[in-house]
Amino acid sequence: MDKSCFPKAKYTSVVLLKPRTRDIPQIITLVEIPVDGGYGRWGSWGDCSITCGKTKGIRTRYRLCNNPEPSGGGKDCPEDDGADRQACTPPLKKCPGNYEEI
What is the pLDDT of residue 24? Predict the structure, then answer.
């Protein structure tokens, strides 16, 4: 049997019942089981939340719940937003114009 036509994430068992006579067709039962979601790879870091000054900003990267996607009643990825944040230094040390740093 060609197993490539069955999605790996959704089906884990295929039951073939052999016919007792040649007149009865084979019965294929696909059993869908719950597959919990898993996070995929991290995306690239975004830009720093501020563009100038001495204060630190925040940059963020994200990942999707798609490795695998939840299916068959499986659970979503763990209770976070799929985001990772870290402090960043703005690209310009001094802001242009006559602004006071807060």
Answer: 65
pTM: 0.60
**H/E run at residue 27:** strand 27-32
Q: What pLDDT digit, counting tens, does each position of 39-68 carry?
A: 999 999 999 999 998 899 999 999 999 999
Residue for token pair 């960043």: 88
> Could you tell me whether strands 57-62 and 83-88 are parallel, antiparallel, or unpaired per DSSP bridges?
antiparallel
Euclidean distance between CA atoms 77 and 80, whole angstroms: 8
The C-alpha angle with vertex 82 and arms to 76 and 87, in degrees rounded to 5, equals 165
Compute the distance between CA of residue 90 and CA of residue 52 in angstroms, rounded to an integer: 5
